[in-house]
Amino acid sequence: MRAAVLTGPQALSIAMVPVPRPGSGEVLIRLEGCGVCASNVEPWEGQPWSSWPGQPGGMGHEGWGVIAALGEGVEGLAVGQRVTALTERSYAEFDVAPAAMVVPLPAALDGRPVPGEPVACAMNIFARSDLRSGQTVVIVGIGFLGAILTRLASDAGARVIAVSRRAETLALARAMGAAETIPMDDHWRIIEDVKRLTGGRMAERVIECVGRQWPLDLAGELVAEGGRLVIAGYHQDGPRQVNMQMWNWKGIDIASAHERDAGVRVAGLRAAVDALASGRLDLTPLLTGRYPLDDLGQALADTRDKPGAFVKGWVAL
């Protein structure tokens, strides 16, 4: 099979490697596609702890496709069934997943790209936010994740204030249900804008979706006393500092909303599939770039640089 291999900083090659075999309790998936996650950008650019070459298909974890083979003992799944899964090497034509991490796709999603894993992340982050109808939530950073959270929060009856860097993503946030939008260009003006929009109370919930120091600093400023700061951004490029004096004074709850429990993750994946199949969520305006596997490097560059109205790319396999 063809598989992408990271061979150095911003260097990828396409290798011919053996198709993996499913072991006991595993499923072999002939992949149709894999979403490109922003968390791939730092490894692709090269981190001090990086080593090369990477695993064939490595970094790809948002795959979907058709079951090609079942390992011993797998029940409830069938060859030919279309599925999405939690895997780790899906920048390739095939990948293997534990059967417990595979979720069938209903006919309502036939013919559509279904990067289930990032939608599952959004569902689990939303659950951790403990959002209630009538609350104000500020979402800092509107990309794929922030846009979905905007839709979920607005549908739940919250008033969403979206903060984002690009005019295109502010327009997207409004389309997804945001009541107010604020350009993310001036720290103190943003604080004053949220203060004005909330009558000085600030927001009961703030969800940070960027994964950088300044947006985290900003998010802490925007939380109301007794509110909750939900950290959804993936902070993987080094340590962070926080204003603990302010956090203590406000008495806020902090939720680092990255789930690691396998049962919680697959429950989020099932919830994601249900939301997509029912029409509660529509990925059409969010999947803005389709790339062949040979152009994975360009997909990662676009994920970093976000040209024009770019939101999220995916690799067609």
From TrEMBL:
It comes from the Bacteria. One of its GO terms (molecular function) is oxidoreductase activity, acting on the CH-OH group of donors, NAD or NADP as acceptor. Pfam families: ADH_N, ADH_zinc_N. Keywords: Metal-binding, Oxidoreductase, Zinc. Residues 8-300 form the Enoyl reductase (ER) domain. Belongs to the zinc-containing alcohol dehydrogenase family. InterPro entries: ADH-like_C, ADH-like_N, ADH_Zn_CS, ER, GroES-like_sf, NAD(P)-bd_dom_sf, Zn_alcohol_dh. Its cofactor is Zn(2+). This is L-iditol 2-dehydrogenase. Gene3D superfamilies: Medium-chain alcohol dehydrogenases, catalytic domain, NAD(P)-binding Rossmann-like Domain. It comes from Paracoccus contaminans.
